Amino acid sequence: MTEPKLTPAQRLVLYYMAFEAVYHGKTWFTFDEIKRGTGLAVRTLRAALVALRRRGYIESYLVPGAGRRLLHRLRLDKFLPEPELEGVYLVDMAGDVLSPDAVAVVTRADVVLYTESVPRRKLEGLAKRLEPFNGQLPEAKSVAIVFNSLADWEKVAPLAAKAKYICASNVLDKAVGVCLTCGNVDIDLRTIRIKTPGPDVEKLLADYDVLGTVVVESCGGRKAELLILKKR
After folding, report:
1. What's the fold here for domain 8-78?
2. How far apart (Å, rounded) are the C-alpha atoms in residues 223 and 218?
3. What is the pTM of this model?
């Protein structure tokens, strides 16, 4: 029997919770938060939450000592394709935001490690097993290391050759209003300013050492190789 389609109210609830989970790292939602975010009437929202919970799209838990107050969480595994994860994944979270691809990796990995510059709260509720990164890899089929490429590259560089790189954030794209590999970019990272097209690479390398390269994929599927630089 074909599963009935979601109602507009149910879809709105899912869109709101998914957006907040992916782009703001929010895991748990109160009824009032969902009501404010969606603008739905109380009776309509209650009916939508009951239906979504019955169909497995969300989970709801009673808060101890808070009457009958419920907290609701989106089940991301219902929406994200299940990748076959094996090996080490470097998840770059320089912008404090997780992209859908990064969420899929963090959710599916057996172990998720994070560096000091990554806020743990962004990963709680997503990872099966969450631990600080101390330079060592645990025994596991799949390991995701969430790091900040602007601050932690030296910590993860030894693993780069055997890891898959996931660009989890488009913070630079948002900052300049264009895609990093699709158009002209004017980025100010405080220590270095690059203006495309055609930066003067020779003068650049006179003051900076090249630590390595990272290949990133743009929103249109185009790939670009970025240099990782360190000021001498």
Report:
1. Arc Repressor Mutant, subunit A (1.10.10)
2. 6
3. 0.48
